[in-house]
Amino acid sequence: MSSLFCFSGAIPSSEDEGGRQGxxxxxxxxxSSFRKGKRDSEYYVAEKCGQYFFEYLVVVxxxxxxxxxxxxPQITYQFPKRDGMVRYQKEEEExxxxxxxxxxxxxxxxxxxxxxxxxxxxxxxxxxxDGSRRNGYCRxxxxxxxxxxxxxxxxxxxxxxxxxLFSKIFDEVEKRRQKSMAMIYPFMQKLRxxxxxxxxxxxxxxxxxxESGTEIISLxxxxxxxLEHVNFAKLFSCLTDDEVLLVFAAAVxxxxxxxxxxxxxxxxxxxxxxxxxxxxxxxxHTFISIVPEILIDVxxxxxxYLLGVQKRLLDEVxxxxxxxxxxxxxxxxxxxxxxxEESILPPKLQTEIREVLTVEExxxxxxxxxxxxxxxxxxHYSSYVKYSHAGGQGVFEKKRFYKAIDSKTTRHFVxxxxxxxxxxxxxxxxxxxxxxxxxxxxxxxxxxxSPVNKK
Length: 455
Description:
GO molecular function: guanyl-nucleotide exchange factor activity
Order of helices and strands: EHHEEHEEEHHEEHHEHEEHEHHHEEHHHH
GO cellular component, one term: cytosol
Number of strands: 14
Helix content: 25-40%
Low-confidence stretches: 1-24, 26-50, 322-336, 438-455
Region (Disordered): 434-455
Mean pLDDT: 78
Keywords: Guanine-nucleotide releasing factor
Protein name: DENN/MADD domain containing 2Da
Largest sheet: 5 strands, mixed
Structural class: alpha+beta
Number of helices: 16
CATH superfamily of the domain at 45-221: Longin module
Radius of gyration: 23 Å
Distance between the termini: 37 Å
CATH topology of the domain at 45-221: Beta-Lactamase
């Protein structure tokens, strides 16, 4: 699958297998306790606050414009309908619904009736003014009927990040849509009423289908809930291991990165996979897994971003990004980089990541490999958060923190990494924790052989 990555200049600013995995899990859990809204807490929030699987389902259809010269996306079905909203709530919902139509059909108005169309599933992110994010899951397909007709899109909006789970829900929606639009409602209603499952658990939905009888649909969340939105296989099918490391290096220093591919599903899966490599940190800047054509000017932004752009817009991306160097995967082009990507990450840790990447259980292996990278580079952070008095806010001793690292290459990387917004916000949350909840340096040292990596 052809993919392309555009990098701009940098934005200023030994245990046994069981023990190793256990250490990573403990360290992962410890770090995630400092992250607001991490997936490990989603079950508690959903269960205690009555959170639904999804906010609503909409069907977006392509309708002829008044002059008949083109098509425009319009919402033709919405479940549930929202009644009793005050004015500002209605205005906000209208903005959200308008954004949904753009992301479901990012190509704009250039459509023609089709007789064949392979359905595709992809996801996007809606970012609110306060920085909170909601996930949009979309499946585009050719509606039932005869003759040429434009495709339509089914879109589910949810605060939950679980691509695999919603893909299965779309399978059920599509199966019912082929029989009758009216059959979608009872299934989605039962889904909204169902309890949100904990990681590793299953919820069963009973649904009646004429001629088939009552069916039981089982929806299971993965045990590693923070990986349930990620498909690393797609990332590694598009890029070699070395190229993934180059992209990771650019992302960890919060540079501008554009992904280009033909398929919407490829774009959304790859960009979410790259963001997941940063765990337990979170990408804090512009994140648009699929950029609608009308918003293509976003590539001119001087701030960090992760963007997904369809290949047909490649010329517009390069025309508007004169200073952007290009790393491409197309066979007819060479690979271009800024020039420092290979030297950003400590060489020894790059080698260690390459050695553990295998095709078996790829999601688990990849996530552990990159989490271990952060453990070895900044895992000693807790020893350098000092509190002046009980109940007071902590202060992170930045200079002492990176000077404690013996490896020159690791120290050089960490000095650059601690200037990023993702690390800064992480430490701010740590500083606000009560001292009693702060893990000790001894605890960190028990998790890995050497949290301060040495050559």
